[in-house]
TrEMBL record, chains A, B:
One of its GO terms (molecular function) is methyltransferase activity. InterPro entries: Alpha/beta_knot_MTases (IPR029028), RNA_MeTrfase_TrmJ/LasT (IPR004384), SpoU_MeTrfase (IPR001537), tRNA_m1G_MTases_N (IPR029026). Belongs to the class IV-like SAM-binding methyltransferase superfamily. RNA methyltransferase TrmH family. Its EC number is 2.1.1.200. It holds the Pfam family SpoU_methylase. It is found in: Cytoplasm. The lineage of its organism: Bacteria, Pseudomonadati, Pseudomonadota, Alphaproteobacteria, Hyphomicrobiales. Catalyzes the formation of 2'O-methylated cytidine (Cm32) or 2'O-methylated uridine (Um32) at position 32 in tRNA. This is tRNA (cytidine/uridine-2'-O-)-methyltransferase TrmJ. Keywords: Cytoplasm, Methyltransferase, S-adenosyl-L-methionine, Transferase, tRNA processing. Its main location: cytoplasm. It comes from Ancylobacter koreensis. It catalyses: uridine(32) in tRNA + S-adenosyl-L-methionine = 2'-O-methyluridine(32) in tRNA + S-adenosyl-L-homocysteine + H(+); cytidine(32) in tRNA + S-adenosyl-L-methionine = 2'-O-methylcytidine(32) in tRNA + S-adenosyl-L-homocysteine + H(+).
Length: 281, 281
């Protein structure tokens, strides 16, 4: 995914949940998580006691330009302090904690978050240390547990990846799944009259080219050919292109035959292989 | 998300779509993408002309143990060659290409992929170069375009993050959204008789403690208190815990009063603030 999709004239989405990273160890991971936050419209970051201190030049590098998130990030000594002003907390963990809390996937957390924010609450999504995750005491401060469906044989997810997936579900919901672009406006599907005229054209030319060797099989072959083109959902433009292709193939055949005849007269072999089937050959 | 969720006795999921990385530039990104593939049950990797050559030690480091993916990765000179044996291709791109192809999000691609694999087809998910993405000629080899809902003001997604999100949607679907663990089996919600006995207990103790200062407001206050506990969905164990808490508070009050009296007799002030409200104080 290249950077070319970025439109710097567009405004960043406002609001959304707070992301809290508890004692992140490496600036690279903080930066990568921040970049993913920015991609998915999350801009509110709180850091609990980052091991390498703050600010962190490596975090800046890996954030790849999501500076506004870094600049407004707040640092707290512990999770309890970082939860100031928060009404609802989801704690991300890859391990069962044996706690009587609801366990939700990222999609369900996104839905819960959107509903609570719409109701005027503020929500935090809490992620733990790279190696050891959140302490059980920290998880006990959460309303729900957030976890992801992962391969049980290889469950260790990079911190920034976890933030990315949770952010993705958030933005998918917050943007109603709107993709950054769509299939270009299509010309409408062609009138059947145009399609049938194309069938007439191609079937006539195939007849002249002696394509239908067996008269008994001809109706089935024609049905099969028509089905191929029916499946495509051709527009008028598509049909014009196909008419042109058939005409070029027919006329090219004449040209090729004439050239082959000239070559044979000069003692040369005709070209073999893919090249010889190109209509412009 | 810590590594503690990994269970090395579990088998890796088999099958799934092929991931093709076209001319990836950095071993770090290949390795991070491979780790994300492993997390989300994707194990089939094809590389088109990786810039730093192959194998790549940095890719091994960043794959964090997903060696089986690296060991079985295949390298091809171009995308056309890498599509050998593939029936259906989704090309990831962040930019509109003006092509008449369906544009799908990762969830729709996952559904399409699962359906085609179930029908015996093989599917490839193709990701382009870190900076420049896929060339238009490469996108033209795909059946559908895959893109993600992203913040238009900050749309540049890291390659491995894109693989992670697409892999996440794949595994969410392939595993029916099964999370690695669930809320522990709860004791069933308590009989109403047990709940009402608790209400009797707490209301009797509050009466004795002169909590209900205004007889007119007492019925409303009691209703509010009952509503708090009704909302929780208490189990028998929860109710036993609450009975114990009320009893301890009542008995602790006696202890505290006795101690306060002793302190006052010795000329000391009682402890103020949160400490004095702890039942074990």
């Amino acid at each position: 995914m290249s950077g070319a999709g970025t439109d710097s004239t567009k405004a960043w989405p406002e609001g959304g949940p707070v992301v809290i990273l508890v004692e992140p160890q490496l600036g690279e991971n903080i930066g990568s998580a921040v970049r993913a936050m920015g991609n998915f419209g999350l801009s509110r970051l709180r850091l609990v006691n980052p091991r390498e201190g703050w600010p962190n030049p490596k975090a800046v590098t890996f954030a790849s330009g999501a500076d506004r998130i870094l600049e407004t990030a707040e640092v707290f000594p512990d999770l309890r302090a970082a939860l100031a002003g928060i009404n609802f907390v989801a704690a991300a963990t890859a391990r069962e904690r044996g706690m009587q809390k609801s366990v939700l996937g990222a999609d369900a957390v996104a839905a819960e978050t959107a509903g609570r924010i719409a109701g005027g609450e503020d929500v935090a999504l809490v992620f733990g240390r790279e190696r050891t995750g959140l302490y059980t005491e920290e998880v006990s401060l959460a309303d729900v547990i957030l976890t992801l469906p992962v391969n049980p044989a290889f469950a260790s997810l990079n911190l920034a990846m976890a933030v990315a997936v949770v952010g993705y579900e958030w933005f998918k919901l917050a943007s109603n799944g709107a993709l950054p672009f769509q299939q270009p406006d299509r010309y409408p599907i062609a009138d059947k009259a145009d399609l049938l005229a194309f069938f007439d054209h191609v079937e006539r030319e195939l007849d002249e080219a002696l394509f239908f060797r067996s008269p008994e099989k001809k109706p089935v072959t024609i049905r099969n050919i028509r089905n191929i083109f029916h499946r495509v959902g051709l527009t008028r433009q598509d049909i014009a292109t196909l008419h042109g292709m058939v005409t070029a193939l027919v006329e090219g055949r004449g040209t090729r035959e004439a050239r082959t005849a000239a070559r044979l007269a000069g003692g040369k072999k005709p070209l073999a292989g893919p090249e010889s089937s190109e209509p412009t050959d």
